[in-house]
Please model this.
Amino acid sequence: MKVANEVIELLVQSAGTWLFEGHRSGLTDREWMALRFLARANRFSKTPSALATYLGTTRTSASQIAAVLAEKGLLTRKASTEDKRSIALSVTPQGTKFLDRDPISALRDQVVILELADRTRLRDALRQALRRLDTALRRHHTDVCSECMFLAERSKQKGSHFECRLFRKELALKETELLCTHFERRT
Model:
């Protein structure tokens, strides 16, 4: 229990480097979370509904956050090419540049200098803890496509390609490392 408490305290202290009250660089915590998420989300998760799922809030609140980010020129909102009834949210070039000032970058930079094996163990341990917590709290888990049960790798003559079986759409290799709110863990 002592080590578990120390781990929690260290996570709380690390959050202090990027969680704050009010605004930092003109954004609230939730706006930073939304911008980070949308910069790493796959094309199926760049909607107000998916953003609401990720943030653990209502669709109305997520839409308001997206509107603020759009007003600041960090995000665009337009009709989805996948579903005309839906809105697609995209980070603008200005938003991508703005992410260079992300307060969480200092923590990421410290994780980057860890040995690869240590980074991998840390990632896997946190992923496992969050999955269990999401299950206990009956929350939906968001994760990368490469870990999802819906991802299928298909062989072609010129190499492999990927497909999301949920959406029945092809995915590029780089898309398999993006976040998806429709994620389902492999059993």
